[in-house]
Amino acid sequence: MLAWYIFTSMGFYPLASSSTYLIDSSVFDRITIRRNNGQCILTIIVHNNSIEIIYVERVLLNGKTL
Fold first, then answer.
1. Helices and strands (DSSP H and E) totals, the chain
2. Which end of the chain, N or C, is more open, meaning fewer C-beta atoms within 10 Å of its C-beta?
3. E strand spans, the chain
4. Residue ranges of the Glycosyl hydrolase family domain (predicted)?
5. How far apart are alpha carbons 58 and 15 in whole angstroms?
């Protein structure tokens, strides 16, 4: 349950029994996922984050719109 909560709080979580990830609004303004060696593998940055804004307007991956 803890992994599910962490993923959903980030707004990025795996779809069960699939290799697909869903994107949703995050409770954090910024979160970085790192490997044990300190290498950054994912940073999520949310602009204008608030409880009233519940939809994702756009998603960028390496500067390109998904």
1. 1, 6
2. N
3. 12-14, 21-23, 30-34, 40-45, 60-61, 64-65
4. 1-65
5. 20
